[in-house]
Automatic annotation (TrEMBL):
A molecular function (GO) term: mRNA binding
TPR repeats: 114-147
Name the record gives this protein: Type IV pilus assembly protein
A GO BP entry: mRNA processing
Keywords carried by this UniProt record: TPR repeat
Keyword Zinc: no
Cited PROSITE patterns: TPR
Lineage, opening ranks: Bacteria, Pseudomonadati, Pseudomonadota, Gammaproteobacteria, Vibrionales
UniProt-listed SMART domains: TPR
Family matches, as Pfam families: TPR_17 (PF13431), TPR_19 (PF14559)
Length: 176
C-alpha cells in the first residue's frame, strides 16, 4: 500500500529527525531520517537531511554518496547544489564547490541566491582567494543589503587591502 502523501509523511519525519539531531539524540535522528527516505526516497529534502546527519556523525563517505545521488537526480535544484558545494568546501575541494555554488545561483527558481554567494565567498576565503571572496560578498550584498556576515567580512577584506575609507563607509551604513 502506497502512502497517501509521501512528501508530507517525509516532511514530518524530517522535522522530527532534525529536531533530534539538534538535541544530540543521534539514534532517533537517524531512525526518523531513514523513515523519511523510506516514504520518499527521491525527495531532495529527505536526501539532504540524511546527508547532513551523516556529516554531523563524521560519516563523510556516506554523506558524499547521498549528495552525489541527489545532485544526479536533481541537477537543477539550487538547494541540492548549494548544500553539496558547502560539503565539498569543508573537505577542501574548493574548485568543485565553487562550480556548484555558481550552478545553484544560475537556477531560475532558486531564491537563496545571497546565501549561495555568501557560501561561495567563505569557500573562496578558505581557498585563500581574497579577490574572489570580495566579489562574492559584494554580490551577496547586492541581493540582500542586510547580510551581516557578508558586510563585516567584506569590510575586513577592504581593511586588509588598505581600502580604509570604503570599509569605514560600509560599516557606518551597516550600523545605521
Amino acid at each position: 500500500q502506497k502512502d497517501p502523501d509521501p512528501i508530507g509523511m517525509a516532511e514530518s519525519r524530517i522535522a522530527l529527525g532534525l529536531g533530534y539531531l539538534e538535541n544530540g539524540a543521534m539514534i532517533k535522528a537517524h531512525d526518523n531520517l531513514q523513515q523519511a527516505l523510506t516514504h520518499a526516497p527521491d525527495y531532495y529534502r529527505a536526501q539532504l537531511s540524511m546527508a547532513h546527519y551523516y556529516e554531523r556523525v563524521g560519516e563523510n563517505g556516506k554523506a558524499e554518496d547521498i549528495y552525489q545521488k541527489s545532485a544526479r537526480q536533481h541537477p537543477k535544484n539550487g538547494n541540492v547544489l548549494n548544500n553539496y558545494g558547502t560539503f565539498l568546501c569543508k573537505k577542501g575541494e574548493y574548485d568543485k564547490a565553487d562550480r556548484l555554488f555558481n550552478r545553484a545561483i544560475e537556477q531560475p527558481y532558486y531564491y537563496l541566491i545571497p546565501a549561495s554567494y555568501e557560501n561561495a565567498a567563505f569557500c573562496a576565503l578558505k581557498a585563500g582567494d581574497n579577490v574572489k571572496a570580495q566579489t562574492y560578498f559584494t554580490r551577496a550584498i547586492d541581493y540582500d543589503p542586510h547580510r551581516p556576515k557578508s558586510i563585516l567580512n567584506l569590510a575586513k577584506l577592504e581593511v586588509d587591502a588598505g581600502n580604509y575609507t570604503q570599509a569605514r563607509l560600509r560599516l557606518m551604513r551597516f550600523h545605521q
